[in-house]
Amino acid sequence: MAASSVEELLAKAEQEEAEKLKSITVQKELDLDFDLGNLLACDKNRIETRDFREQKKEDFLRSLARDNTQLLINEIWKLPTERVEEVIVAKLPEPTTRLPREKPPLKPRPPTKWEQFAKLKGIQKKKKTNLVWDETAKEWKRRWGYKRANDDTKEWLIEVPETADPNEDQFAKRVKAKKERVAKNEFNRLKNIARAQKVKTPGVGLVPKAQQSRNELAKAVSVAKVSTASVGRFQDDLPKEKPPKNSGKRRKFDPLIGDFSSEKQKQLDLLKTMGSKKPRLDITKAVNQQMREEDKEEAAAKRRKGGGKRGRKGNMTGKGKAGKAGGGGKAGKAGGGGKRRGKPGKK
Amino acid sequence: MTQLDNITKPKTRRSKRFLESRAPKLTENVKSVMIMKGGNTSQTITQALKDVYSLKKPNAVLYKKKNITRPFEDSTSLEFFSKKSDCSLFLFGSHNKKRPNNLIFGRMFDFHVLDMIELGVEKSVSLSEIKTSKCPEGTKPMLVFAGEAFESDNEFKRVKNLFLDIFRGPTVSAVRLAGLEHVLHFTAMEGKIYLRSYRCLLKKSGCRTPRIELEEIGPSLDLVLRRTHLASDDLYKLAHKQPKALKPKKKKNISRDALGSTLGRVHMQKQDLSKLQTRKMKGLRKRRAEMVPDKDMRTPKEAKVES
């Protein structure tokens, strides 16, 4: 009797379990593939086209979706959970589907010249403190940077050493030395970067390239000509070689103590033009500039018309015309010429 | 110039952070989509683009102007936009007589086009037409792909990979169980793909796992596969290369034997056998004159420990 009642109890318990699970079980021919890291489920079962057309499409899709989602949720609920700030959270595993990256992975930086040497010699990097005790100021100052300790450019008193020239500016000497050190550091840094990226840097003069343009060749010729012991004075010209265009001093300054009368004359002329009422307008120069600008605008408009084709035609020509009219009007009025865009007038 | 090169250093912390976020990294940022329109678009297409934008917010950029390009012929314009906005996924919508209601989904590797898939929209129901309450923006959706075409056909496999890449959202280590609301269901049938988007309601069932009821929200699109431009095999492999640092470190000294038990090796120092504690047997005790050999002879160095 007891045995049968135990059996009955077990059967009842099983039935109850089955009832409970009925609502969440789904029958499928093939099991789904899950990638829980991506919350992904793949259903490989065949979809019968007959089923598809019998029911209404939306209902069929919805029931299919419901079944698949139920299976996915069942899998997710099997994951370990934890409580984070009153919220139950399931810990997801790593995603298994391989997806391509956005950008290629970073290559490790090649070592700099110093790093190579240090590795060779076995020199270890020593950790240094950020602050150093400065005796003169009696406080802790930075090792380098703004208001650093033991800054020799900021000293107010420098003793002139015995071996030095008494007229030499010791302060300027220190500042110049610092500038040279900074420039050398920057140069070495850029050389390290160029070596890392395998960019060709010029030793002296020009970068070696596969194809040179006409200007670059001319420049190369002039640089080569000047690189002799007597700086190109006794070098013959090549046939059809023109003298280099941008050589010589860029700006010419009058000497400080020169011809007093010519200086006086120049200054009086300046005062006269400043005092006169008539504007200084070089007519030929203004007209030439205006014509050049008009040609430029026409050429640009033609190029853009050729490239853009549709809807832009109207805009472009409208703008061009307005621009030209405005420009013409301006140049007609006084005070346009010398100031418009070109280089400031030379004396 | 969105490259952190040391020649021109960024002058502010903010610009430095911006450049660092765009630089190539070990674990990359979430991929974002740029959504753009072609020379001519129809109402269905603009609606579809807006719907995908709202699905993918905030990792999406919607361009308002029309771009007169043809991605399948010339992808330089797309690559330029991708470089400017740092988006590696794109969606290009257009409409003309030959290809009505056209959507081109694609992804980039190193700002060059990797894969492009052209789909035609046959029927669409937009977000605004279905009047139910929607899921909050930014919920990670559950993705379900149904249909054997996604496993058997090469092009469909790539389509599945691309859709997974586009719609999956950020990779998280844990997910709130009550927050699993959004489901995107893709069905492949007879060369067509049916995209449906549902909101799942977790109902009480007898046991811990809830019963699911679905409610349709969101865009529903019937897509037909048109042209594809898939990456060559070696480019595809190159795009999957992971840096070495990301590989999981193998725990050494753990092995499994044929019966399934885990084995490990314990290394011990050399034992002094004369001091070894063995069972005392009076009869075998050392006498003054005699020396009896030890009972156990163990190899000194190793002893396999079974766990």
Automatic annotation (TrEMBL), chain A:
Instruction: Provide ranges: composition bias, Basic residues.
Output: 302-313, 338-347
Q: Where is this region: Disordered?
A: 228-347
**Bias-annotated ranges (Gly residues):** 323-337
Subcellular location(s) per record = Nucleus
Q: Where on the tree of life does the source sit, at the highest rank? A: Eukaryota
Q: Name one GO biological process term.
A: ribosomal large subunit biogenesis
* Residue ranges the record marks as coiled coil: none
Q: Which InterPro entries match?
A: Ribosom_reg
| Compositional bias of kind Basic and acidic residues | 234-244, 291-301
In its keyword annotation, does this UniProt entry include Nucleus? yes
Show the GO cellular component annotation of the record.
nucleolus; preribosome, large subunit precursor
Q: What is its main location?
A: nucleus
Keywords, A to Z? Answer: Nucleus, Ribosome biogenesis
> Any keyword Nucleus?
yes
Family per record: Belongs to the RRS1 family.
Q: What does this protein do?
A: Involved in ribosomal large subunit assembly.
Protein name (record) = Ribosome biogenesis regulatory protein
Provide the species name: Nothobranchius furzeri
TrEMBL record, chain B:
Q: Does the keyword Transmembrane apply?
A: no
The answer to whether keyword Ubl conjugation applies is no
Entry keywords, A to Z: Nucleus
Corresponding gene?
RPF2
Q: What is this protein called?
A: Ribosome production factor 2 homolog
**Cellular component annotations (GO), alphabetically ordered:** nucleolus
Which species does this protein come from? Nothobranchius furzeri
Q: Which residue stretches belong to region Disordered?
A: 266-307
Q: Where is the Brix domain?
A: 31-234
